[in-house]
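Appendix B, Record 12. Input sequence as logged:
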Amino acid sequence: MANLTHPALVGFADIRTQAIDDWQQYKIEGRQYLNLAETAYRKKKKAFTAEILYNLIAMGIEKLVMSGLMEIGRLPYNHTMHDLADALEEWMPEAIEGMAEAIRNLDSHQEICDPYVCTIRIPTPAEIENMLVLARQLEQRLSPASA
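Logged structural output:
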């Protein structure tokens, strides 16, 4: 009887990744969200409440993170700030070094995944300012990925 050997199983590390289409569009949209939030905040536009500014900043961060991950062919498990930070720590640790907790803390302003137990905490102007700084720092760190 012939000696049959089975090939080794393929692991996640063996999967060859490639850029996911439209990653550049995500980067553009992320920057647009941040530009809008920053402009509205600086000009103190009344229509842009702290809650709206928070959401614009969060969407900007989400788009920028997705762009960076899509460019290297990776995706997060979900789209909360915790999940985005986890994915960056796994696939692009240099981009999030020293920022992970600050990004995760953004989730504390809106916990809306459970429709029955939803928490919304409106950020202060100082918190909005810090969020904008954080978002711009992350944007800069993610930019070299495509350079």
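The chain has six helices and two strands.
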